[in-house]
Amino acid sequence: MAVSIEINTPDDWHLHFRDGDFLKETVPATARCFQRAIVMPNLAPPVTTAAIATEYKARILAARPANSSFTPLMTLYLTNDTTAQDIRDAKQAGVVAVKLYPAGATTNSDAAVSDLSHLDPVFEALVEEGLLLLIHGEVTNHDVDIFDREKLFIDRYLRDITERFPALKIVFEHITTKEAVEFVSGSSENVAATITPQHLLLNRNDLLVGGVQPHNYCLPVLKRNIHQIALQEAVASGSKKFFLGTDSAPHEQHRKESACGCAGCYSAWGAIELYAEVFDSLGVLDQLEGFASHYGADFYNLPRNTTTITLVKESWEVPTSIVLPNGNNIVPFFAGKTLSWRLHS
Question: Catalytic: 206?
Fold first, then answer.
């Protein structure tokens, strides 16, 4: 008899659906194993108002599989022009969080915040309305080494924000460094972090050794293995401050494999299996349910899911490519590799 585990249905607390035809692929891929997902707002143009968020949510729900109860949780994209009234309107529309991208930090972030000092009224409104602040924590100065940008963001900005707004709930998104783990662990209960499968499974050797591996290129970029180990130790610890956020981010193959390849790993079709692989390899499979199904819901003050999924220890190969409705291909994360755990259909 195959070994199996049953856990409460998990949620993805950080992902990118994109828009248009992408939704016909990304929404079903996510709904196959996740009950809810925090949807990133960095479309082109970005989701900057409650009205745009409501329209985007409707498009996501239209792409949801029949009989699925999957629920998208919407976010607002902060700009230099975001106001406290925008936050109040977002709350009324059911938006649960706002996303802070430093300008130029990642895909479609050129319209994002270039001066954090202007955001104090917005942060105050977030506290008043009970919305969370989700942060892509990197400085974007050209003179700063790309491998140091997360640490410098903590030192220059994040520490100050948490000290001046102690009641503000903050998720430090897709953390990649030992310093980020230490910062979150040492901060108040109002600071937490998401961790991706790629940053748990890989380090910068997997991006650069033997030639550039474009489908392992993401932002924040993969770091040294000492940081990978720190992330693994964080999830193995069972700390409620760290929870699942795939940062699944689809790009068409020809855009990834180009002279200026896009950043992002499309992990949706193997997401929960990838995490099971990590937790099993660390000998802490019993910690997977908390990380995947409990701690994020608790931090967002949302009820834990009551349904369950079953994972079976059964080898399978991640597809080498996925065809989009427009005929173009996506190469999924871990394409062509064998995983040991599989979602039981």
Answer: no
